[in-house]
Design brief:
Layout lengths: L6 H9 L4 H8 L3 E3 L1 H8 L4 E4 L2 H6 L4 H15 L3 E8 L2 E4 L3 H9 L4 E3 L4 H7 L3 E3 L1 H11 L3 E3 L10 H4 L4 H6 L5 E4 L8 H10 L3 E5 L19 E3 L2 H14 L5 E4 L4 H23 L7 H13 L2 H29 L19 H16 L10 E3 L3 E8 L13 E8 L1 H11 L5 E7 L2 H9 L4 E8 L6 E6 L5 E7 L8 H5 L2 H5 L4 E4 L4 H13 L4 E4 L20 E2 L3 H10 L12 H12 L8 E5 L5 E8 L11 H4 E10 L15 H14 L4 H16 L16 H6 L6 E4 L1
Parallel strand pairs: 1-4, 2-3, 2-7, 5-6, 7-8, 8-11, 9-10, 9-11, 12-15, 12-19, 13-17, 15-16, 19-20, 20-21, 21-22
Antiparallel strand pairs: 3-4, 3-6, 13-14, 17-18, 22-23, 23-24, 24-25
């Protein structure tokens, strides 16, 4: 679920201190936290907030989107989770997906959103980039203590008559947050800016050991910072002290431009001074000064100002990420208790159950509110509570004997597993399913609160689906019993409410728990609007549902194991092998034979082979592998059928906790890779990394699956055997 309820709102809901009007705005979900960001915050991992006006107003397209993604990458490389803040369709987003970043970068109507603009922009449902002050507000409400930007605003020259003082300064003066920037631009009155920062009670420190306060393009401004910190550890200690005191004002860490860019920076600084002189000569005043100076500087430096700008932004992102990591270590070591949010707003331990109850009420209320039509995945399928019994001994004594083992509760369902994995990988799917109106449903909602659950119906007179799994000491499924009757209530009528979301989906995933009529309806809508569809067969008994009619020809991908693939062919009336071979070569041969006839209509068959890895069968692309991306089918495919076998990520037998969610984790990683525009090999290996994490977990989808742990960078860091590829 995207909603992040700040401690202030939580307290208001618990104690009734807010009006019903305020609660309506909470329920309207004006603040949305990206699942990767939400998970990182919950786990105490370092998070860095980033502004978006540099995307919407700072650079032309496509330089802006390249810069934004590069900066996010730098933050990740240095150990933190990036949370770019923006406003989309009247809601503040803390953390943006690739498609959301692209939308803001290409938008011609994006608004520049400062503190004063937020109420209007939200009320009108507009989109825009948040300034420093707008980003500070969102970061503080989300509980993010570190914000990185290029440079903050300040006191403008002539402010004694114009009263032109940036809202950045006043916002930093009333918010407990740390801002990492390259000081302020020299077009401002730096001396008065430092005086104003002192008046606002903002602790200012230069970074790197020198007291010299930087002036954006220049490491020297001629003014001294009150304090200095030598490195990220000292900066984190300073910030932790400020947040622990909870004085209601922030900290500014001023980072000088890198030495290698200082030469260009000096040339830019000289151009700034010339541009300011020209502005005075032409009597350009007030708000017209900044755009005039920026345009003139770009002309005078032949574009060097942009390169210097990028250099300092990259450096700030690195420094800010390292500070966030050090700050996180302090907190996790118990040296810092506060997260920039006042303790007086925290719910006492005895109210934890009440807080969980409120969260469930919020989920229920959100269900009644309209969901925006966004280009994100939609998952339709089953959700159930799992009771897992894992044996301690290799041999089980039957006949009523009690065998030693571990019994625990977790949460599964193929649809839920896919939605969980995609949520943890930042793809924010809308999940459509059904639960009973019972206590088990309440536990599901609590556990899955990081997912968007507004497509879930609570049905009176029906039980939440349950599943009992008996697992061997080696982690293999021995026997399963399920009560899945409620899944038959995910009917066409239930989907009608979400038809617009299916039409606009970036990807549609459906599982075999759904009624045949529901599968037909979803596939028909997806085909009409050219939405890629992935079908997860679930098990042998349900694998054939789309194949009972021509519905299967509207699918894009299927992800069966060999037993499910054989069941599919049986439903089509085809000859199938009596036994499935267990050897690698035998499994590959059977998978290719059974997949080939299906590729007349399907884009790709992803055959899960357990410990043997995964086999892709489909059209060969120009880069000599199986094409996963359906959008480039005609342009970049040869028309020849191709198979590619990818071995599983290495894992020791003793590390395996259970195998029940490995296939779903695999597909979540592959789909996330496709949606991120990754190539086939990277996407598959992202899936294999997810599968390995889940094999090590007692949960079907490991809580360790995240953007921070599964990414193209993590794929590159692994030692993979080369995939084996051949013509089919």
């Amino acid at each position: 679920m995207f909603l992040k309820v700040s401690s202030y709102w939580r307290c208001s809901l618990l104690h009734g201190t807010r009006t019903s009007f305020s609660r309506k705005y909470l329920h309207d979900n004006v603040l949305r936290i990206h699942p990767c960001v939400q998970e990182a915050l919950a786990d105490g991992k370092p998070v860095v907030a980033l502004e978006s006006t540099i995307v919407t107003h700072g650079m032309p397209y496509p330089d802006n989107i390249h810069m934004a993604k590069e900066v996010e990458g730098i933050v990740r490389q240095n150990g933190s989770v990036p949370a770019t803040v923006g406003v989309l369709h009247g809601r503040v987003h803390v953390g943006l997906s690739d498609s959301e970043l692209d939308f803001l970068a290409e938008s011609k109507e994006a608004v520049k959103v400062s503190r004063r603009d937020l109420p209007y922009v939200l009320s009108k449902g507009l989109s825009g980039g948040t300034t420093v002050s707008g980003t500070i507000i969102a970061a503080q409400k989300a509980g993010i203590p570190i914000f990185v930007t290029g440079g903050i605003g300040g006191v403008h020259r002539g402010a004694e008559t114009s009263m032109d003082v940036s809202a950045d300064l006043t916002e930093l003066g009333r918010t407990s947050i740390a801002v990492v920037s390259a000081g302020v631009k020299s077009i401002l009155d730096i001396g008065r800016t430092l005086e104003y920062l002192e008046t606002q009670g903002i602790c200012v420190a230069s970074f790197g050991g020198s007291r010299e306060f930087p002036a954006f393009f220049s490491p020297q401004s001629g003014f001294q910072a009150p304090y200095t910190v030598r490195d990220d550890k000292e900066a984190a200690e300073l910030i932790a002290s400020a947040l622990e005191l909870d004085m209601g004002s922030g900290v500014l860490i001023a980072v000088p431009i890198p030495a290698e860019a200082a030469t260009a920076g000096q040339e830019v600084e000289e151009a700034v001074q010339q541009a300011l002189s020209e502005a005075r000569d032409h009597k350009i005043r007030g708000k017209k000064v900044t755009p005039f100076v920026l345009q003139r500087v770009n002309e005078l430096t032949g574009g060097k100002s942009l390169k210097a700008n990028l250099a300092l932004i990259r450096n700030n992102a690195k420094v800010g990420s390292l500070i966030a990591v050090s700050l996180s270590k302090l907190r996790n070591a118990g040296c810092w208790q506060s997260v920039g949010v006042s303790r007086k707003h925290s719910a006492p331990p005895e109210r934890e159950e009440a807080t969980a109850s409120v969260k469930e009420q919020v989920v229920s209320t959100l269900k009644e509110n309209p969901i925006p039509h966004e280009y994100r995945p939609v998952v339709i399928g089953g959700i159930n509570v799992d009771f897992v019994a894992k044996a301690s001994n290799a041999k089980l004594v039957l006949g009523g004997q009690t065998n030693p083992g571990r019994v625990y509760q977790t949460f599964g369902g193929v649809g839920r597993n896919l939605a969980d994995g995609l949520s943890r990988l930042g793809k924010a799917p809308l999940f459509i399913s059904a639960l009973g109106n019972d206590r088990l449903a309440e536990s599901v909602l609590r556990y899955c609160s990081h997912m968007d659950l507004r497509g879930i119906s609570r049905l009176q007179g029906h039980n939440t689906a349950t599943y009992c799994a008996f697992i061997t000491d080696q982690g293999e499924l021995n026997l399963g019993l399920g009560d899945f009757d409620i899944h038959q209530q995910i009917t066409v009528n239930h989907l009608l409410e979400y038809e617009e979301h299916i039409r606009h989906a970036a990807f549609l995933c459906i599982d075999g728990n759904l009624p045949v009529s529901t599968i037909k309806y979803a596939c028909r809508i997806a085909k009409q609007y050219q939405v890629p569809v992935c079908y997860e067969p679930t098990d042998q008994g349900k694998a054939s549902k789309p194949f009972m009619s021509d519905t299967w020809k509207e699918l894009t991908y299927i992800s069966p194991n060999l037993l499910e693939l054989r069941a599919i062919h049986q439903s089509l009336g085809n000859t199938v092998p009596q036994e499935i071979p267990s050897s690698l070569e035998g499994s590959l041969g059977a998978a290719v034979t059974l997949s080939r006839p299906l590729l007349e209509h399907l884009h790709c068959v992803v055959v899960t082979l357990g410990a043997h890895g995964v086999l892709l069968c489909g059209q060969r692309s120009r880069d000599q592998t199986v094409s996963l991306r359906p959008g480039i089918r005609r342009q970049e495919q040869s028309g020849e059928l191709y198979a590619a076998h990818y071995p599983a990520a290495p894992i020791a037998k003793e590390e395996i906790m259970n195998v029940s969610g490995a296939g779903d984790s695999l597909m979540a990683g592959i789909i996330a890779g496709i949606l991120s525009g990754c190539d086939t090999t990277t996407s598959v290996r992202m899936g294999l990394l997810c599968a390995r994490l889940s094999l090590r977990s007692q949960h079907p989808i490991s809580k360790q699956i995240s953007c921070a742990n599964v990414s193209p960078e993590h794929v590159d860091a692994e030692h993979w055997p080369e995939p084996r590829q051949w013509d089919m």
